[in-house]
Amino acid sequence: MLTLTENARTAVVGLASQAGVGPDGGLRIAESQSVAGSLELAVVPQPQADDQVVVEDEARVFVDAATAPALDKLTLDTDPAASGTAFVLAPQP
């Protein structure tokens, strides 16, 4: 299952708070419908029925069921070199 670093948890909580999605909201990750091999991230008020839900501390990340196997052994982190909030995926230690 996808895991989150402390930086990612802080970023997800901050984004959800800024978006005002409420306590059930979080970051959703799904395969892009328009760009093959890419992922789309969106702040949403709740997961879809078949999403894999990852909850660490107060951070909630929803992974599309079709995307979940590809992210199974990865960790979501933030990119410190980015000028805004940006996420990266890395293998779990």
Please describe what this structure looks like:
- The chain has 93 residues and is α/β, with parallel strands linked by helices.
- It has one domain (3-91): HesB-like domain (Hypothetical Protein Aq_1857, Chain: A, Sandwich).
- The protein is 19% helix and 37% strand.
- The protein has helices at residues 6-19, 68-71, and strands at 3-4, 26-31, 39-44, 52-56, 59-63, 74-78, 87-91.
- Strands 3-2-5-4 form a four-stranded mixed sheet.
- The two termini are 13 Å apart.
Write the layout of secondary structure elements.
Blueprint: E1 3-4, H1 6-19, E2 26-31, E3 39-44, E4 52-56, E5 59-63, H2 68-71, E6 74-78, E7 87-91
Q: What's the CATH class, please?
A: Mainly Beta
Number of strands: 7
CATH superfamily membership: HesB-like domain
Count of individual helical segments? 2
Rg over CA atoms: 12 Å
Strand order of the largest sheet: 3-2-5-4
Spans of at least 5 consecutive residues whose pLDDT stays below 50 are none
Distance between the termini: 13 Å
The second-level CATH architecture is Sandwich
Strand proportion, as a percent range, falls in 35-45%
Please name the CATH topology. Hypothetical Protein Aq_1857, Chain: A
Indicate the mean pLDDT. 94
Shape: globular
Which structural class fits the helix and strand makeup? alpha/beta
Structurally, how many domains make up the residues?
1
Listing every helix as H and every strand as E from the N terminus to the C terminus, the arrangement reads EHEEEEHEE
Q: What is the percent of helical residues?
A: 10-25%
Biggest beta sheet attributes = 4 strands, mixed
